[in-house]
């Protein structure tokens, strides 16, 4: 039996996943980070992207997280995101509706930037999250949820 580490993924709204994993892939500002049991302690900033939890039975469960933080301890990985999507969420979301919403978000960003009420970093974060979320949902729907 492979060594495992406990993984906790939570969003601002609810717990998303708690379980054991042999390997976890996490999107961070410094790039994609792979974590196994007994990993060095790390604290990092999440960027929007896919978290892949490799389970002991060989299956991989995928989640999409927004901005947040990840804390890695030798036997625990804690991912705390502003929001997160499960594979089931991806199946239930309409990519066309998300694209339309992205257009609205672009208008929102432009309106606030013109009034000087939104800095470039905040605007960029809104759009990066929206674009990455849409790409992930499309990939989940086209691949039937599995890679």
UniProtKB/TrEMBL annotation:
It comes from the Bacteria. GO terms for cellular component: endomembrane system; plasma membrane; proton-transporting ATP synthase complex. InterPro entries: ATP_synth_F1_dsu/esu, ATP_synth_F1_dsu/esu_N, ATPsynth_dsu/esu_N. CDD domains: F1-ATPase_delta. One of its GO terms (molecular function) is proton-transporting ATP synthase activity, rotational mechanism. Residues 6-83 form the ATP synthase F1 complex delta/epsilon subunit N-terminal domain. Pfam families: ATP-synt_DE_N (PF02823). Keywords: ATP synthesis, Cell membrane, CF(1), Hydrogen ion transport, Ion transport, Membrane, Transport. Produces ATP from ADP in the presence of a proton gradient across the membrane. This is ATP synthase epsilon chain. The lineage of its organism: Bacteria, Pseudomonadati, Pseudomonadota, Gammaproteobacteria, Chromatiales.
